[in-house]
Design a protein that fits this description.
By secondary structure, this protein is α/β, with parallel strands linked by helices. The protein contains 17 helices and 20 strands. Strands 7-6-5-4-3-2-1-8 form an eight-stranded parallel sheet. A six-stranded mixed sheet has the order 10-9-11-13-14-12, with helices on both faces. Strand 3, helix 3 and strand 4 form a beta-alpha-beta unit. Helix 12 packs across helix 13, helix 12 packs across helix 16 and helix 16 packs across helix 17. The longest helix is centred in the C-terminal third of the chain and has 17 residues. It starts with a strand and ends with a helix.
């Protein structure tokens, strides 16, 4: 079950949002009395309530907004108990001063907004002695492993325990805590009103992650990177799982570059079955795999890790085929060519990162005549040397004549939508311009290319195709390609409106 927190300054708005949430399927709502500007009227808020409620009133030291006396705050909590609300949230340090009464259940809570302390189990044990119906233990995650420690505590708890971590590292624990026995998790009414760091909106928790459908045996997948909050991969994969009626969940795992090996070892407890891999982990993922295909070994990077039937980690690079298929689609939309349309074409590749390395290797293998150009001359020259192809400096990238231009850089990506890596006057008519940037779909590079009379392919095609290949590796099933494509476009549109 998802408990949705409402924090508004007026009683009227609290009740309006409560009704709205009930209409959207919410089963439990937290009313944050400390947000209300005037003295809260508990009876007014709970009269004719459309769902069960948790009454909470946070002090400033607990990152709350209560600005009156402690006696008044505790009096409100007692009023809620006497009024027989379903739950009242009581901080562990005052649990002894507010006795049990009637049918109201006691949530004894403890929050640490700075860290997930080493004595987590001792704190939990002390809370279990304060006459709780439910223990709520929430801490700040400063590393990915903090979430694992918290979920382990929830799984081993003898008293029903709501346990998760705050912050970006803690997002996974908010989504997975129910899998390990938490009575419920918390979400906010909307992303614009986050009441705690890392809190997700009710619509995300229910529609994208399908929290209430996650069970003890639900397989876990995800994307690893740093940063990761911007990734649309969870949206695409989770809605594909939903479309195919698969019991599975796909999460955003933020992992710092220097902690990949350590974190994946910690995540073994979560029994993750597969990872999509993005910046900065594509080389590291390959090194940690038990086995890899020849393409990944040749490129030195992998964008996918998955467990095979023997529980060994396999590495693949789905960028490779996805990029080549996208280019072929642009060159030969009807698929009528009897030979590879890339063969013999002059190709300029901008960028020298993991994606560029995969695309470059594919172009060379397909018989394309490749030239690499990168802002860092050293990295560009090294990639050209590794691929056995030509190199030109960034300053001279517009001086040659090419059949295909590939942007493998992040230039033009949201929010820097007015940037382009290649001036319009550099372009030649009938050139194919392929931009790996997918957000926005119509980058400035592609807009100017079409104005120039060039053929174009957007990053949407490559992103969806590489995600679909990962989906098949993860599940053994063909991906719902059109569902993924439409989901990505809607997701990009939603991001653009923020």
């Amino acid at each position: 079950m998802i408990c949705v927190s409402i924090g508004r300054t007026r009683h009227k708005m609290v009740m309006m949002e409560h009704r709205s949430l009930a209409e959207k399927g919410a089963e439990l709502v937290e009313l944050r009395l400390d947000w209300i500007a005037r003295t809260p009227d508990v009876n007014r808020l709970i009269k004719d309530r459309p769902t069960p409620v948790v009454i909470t009133c946070r002090r400033p030291e607990d990152k709350g907004r209560w600005n009156k006396t402690e006696e008044q705050r505790q009096a409100l909590l007692r009023t809620a108990i006497v009024s027989e609300v379903e739950y009242v949230d009581i901080e562990d340090d005052i649990a002894g001063t507010i006795p049990r009464y009637g049918k109201t259940k006691r949530i004894i809570s403890h929050h640490n907004f700075d860290e997930t302390p080493d004595d987590l189990e001792e704190i939990h044990a002390a809370m279990c002695k304060k006459d709780p119906d439910i223990v709520k233990l929430v801490t700040m995650a400063n590393s990915p492993g903090d979430s694992v420690r918290m979920l382990q505590l929830v799984a081993n708890a003898k008293v029903p325990t709501i346990g998760f971590c705050m912050g970006e590292y803690g997002v996974i624990s908010r989504i997975l805590c129910g899998k390990y026995g938490s009575p419920f998790t918390y979400a906010t009414f909307s992303r614009e009103r986050e009441l705690a760091p890392g809190q997700l909106a009710f619509s995300e928790m229910s529609r994208i992650y399908r929290y209430d459908e996650i069970g003890p045996e639900t397989p876990v997948y995800g994307v690893i990177g740093d940063p990761i909050a911007h990734s649309l991969s969870p949206l695409i994969h989770n809605l594909a799982f939903k479309h195919d009626k698969l019991d599975a969940v796909y999460l955003p795992f933020r992992i710092p570059k220097d902690r990949l090996k350590e974190t994946l070892k910690e995540f073994e407890w979560l029994n993750v079955q597969g990872y999509s891999v993005t910046i900065p982990h594509k080389a590291g993922a390959l090194e940690l795999a038990d086995e890899a295909d020849e393409a990944s070994k040749k490129m030195g990077v992998a964008n996918t890790l998955f467990k095979d039937d023997k529980k060994a980690w396999q590495a693949r690079n789905t960028d490779y085929d996805a990029a080549l298929d996208s280019i072929r689609l642009g060159l030969d939309p009807q698929g009528k060519a009897t030979t590879d349309p890339i063969n013999g074409k002059q190709v300029l590749l901008l960028g020298a990162g993991g994606v560029s390395r995969a695309i470059g290797a594919g172009i060379v293998a397909a018989g394309g005549v490749l030239t690499v150009s990168n802002r860092s001359r050293t990295r560009g020259e090294q990639l050209a040397k590794d691929l056995g192809c030509n190199h030109c400096t960034w300053e001279n990238r517009g001086s040659g004549r090419y059949d295909i231009l590939v942007n493998g850089t992040a230039v033009g990506m949201y929010p820097n939508v007015n940037d382009t890596p290649f001036a319009q006057n550099f372009m030649q008519e009938e050139m194919l311009v392929f931009d790996t940037v997918y957000n926005p779909e119509n980058t400035l590079l592609l807009k100017q290319a079409r104005e120039r009379g060039c053929k174009t392919v957007s990053g949407i095609e490559m992103f969806v195709r590489q995600a679909a290949a990962q989906y098949k590796l993860f599940t053994g099933k063909e991906a719902p390609l059109e569902v993924m494509r439409n989901t990505l476009r809607k997701g990009i549109s939603a991001v653009g409106k923020l």
